[in-house]
Amino acid sequence: MSHIPACLNPTEEDIQLLLSAHAHLGAQNVDTHMLPYVYQRRDDGVNLINIQKTWEKLMLAARVIATVEDPHDVCAISSSEHGQRAVLKYGVHTGAQGLAGRFTPGNFTNYITRKFKEPRLIVVADPRADHQAIKEASYVNIPVIAFCNTDSPMDHVDIAIPINNAGKHAIGLGFWLLAREVLRLRGALSRKEPWDIMVDLYFYRDPEDVEKEQQQQQQQQQPQLEEPEVAEAGASQWAENAEWANSEGTAPAADWAAEGAANSGWAN
Are 179 and 93 in contact (CB under 8 A)? Predict the structure, then answer.
């Protein structure tokens, strides 16, 4: 890629991650401001996003975020379910504020509210779902970085990262790549060493799937717990049988001896 330094070029693994996460699959509609990021249109009407543009905008956004002195002044926001886990993990790893769920009106404009914040930069997962946060950021002159699909509105968005923000794997991978690059630019992570944080931690997980996994783990642990109980039950049963055998074996011996003594007296 000629638009960025050679050290910021993506590796083959990075490109494979973007393709496997379907980050290049856009929507069937296209906003006029998103036309430069569309590579081509498939026969089924789906617009394909240019992966080169996605990577260039990720690097640009990371360089802007790295210039903020206090990491806590950056706010990552997601109202959609697919991006809530990603923004929380992004906040934990980079020190930013993660806002997952419904955005309360007045967070950026009404200082009386308990959750009032004054960030210097916000990163949103979906401009359409997070329109309230973008609107309030425009009132107080806060720059906006947004992960945008081909049909996303671009109003008040300063840096658009073209990506499939409707896919849970794509949006999670986008925040993971952004967090990794921010840490590299801050010097907390070397480019020669892989990041030990797996991208799976940024993916949305269905609560039903989580419950199924927990049930499977419990079922796997139950046989291991039942084996000692069975052994203890067998040992106790064996002890009871031994006591019964002893009691049954000794009592008749005494009776036979007494009976023999009586018989001997009768014979005399």
Answer: yes
